[in-house]
Design goal:
Strand content: 35-45%
Number of strands: 7
Low-confidence stretches: none
Order of helices and strands: EEEEHEEEH
Helix content: 10-25%
Shape: globular
Oligomer: single chain
Radius of gyration: 14 Å
C-alpha cells in the first residue's frame, strides 16, 4: 500500500499576481525542480489552517491572512499519494525569504502555464484559470 500524505498549499495573492515557488532537487525525479504552491505536510493535532500558517512562516518567512478554502486534489504519484488542500490567501507584503525552495515568481493567472508544475498542483492551476 502506498503512503498517503495530507498536505496544504497556499495560493498567495498580491494584487493580480500569485506566488509560485520552485522545489529543489528531490530523490523523486517527478517532483524534482518542479513549481508548486507553497505549503507542506500537516503535523499531528494541527488544523489545515494552522499547518498552512506554520509552513508559510517556515518556508518563506511570510505571514498570511484572509485564508479561504479553494479546492482539494487527490493525486497518486508513483511512490506515494497526496491529499492536497489548497487555500487562497494574501500576504501583508511580497517580501519573502526562501528556506526550502530554489526560486520563486509572482505571476498573473495568464502566466501560470509557462511553469513546469508538479502534477498534484496542475488541477489547482486549472481551477485558478477557470475562475480567473
Amino acid at each position: 500500500m502506498t503512503k498517503k500524505i495530507k498536505v496544504v498549499a497556499a495560493i498567495i495573492q498580491n494584487g493580480n499576481k500569485i506566488l509560485c515557488v520552485q522545489k529543489g532537487k528531490n530523490k523523486y525525479s517527478y517532483i524534482s525542480e518542479k513549481y508548486e504552491f507553497p505549503g507542506g505536510k500537516l503535523e499531528d493535532g494541527e488544523t489545515s489552517e494552522q499547518a498552512l500558517r506554520r509552513e508559510i512562516r517556515e518556508e518563506l518567512n511570510m505571514e498570511i491572512r484572509n485564508i479561504k478554502e479553494f479546492t482539494v486534489v487527490e493525486h497518486q504519484y508513483p511512490d506515494f499519494s497526496i491529499r492536497l488542500e489548497a487555500f487562497t490567501c494574501s500576504a501583508k507584503s511580497t517580501s519573502l525569504t526562501l528556506s526550502e525552495h530554489i526560486a520563486y515568481e509572482w505571476l498573473t493567472v495568464a502566466q501560470l502555464d509557462k511553469l513546469n508544475w508538479a502534477q498534484a498542483d496542475v488541477p489547482i492551476v486549472k481551477d485558478i484559470q477557470r475562475m480567473g
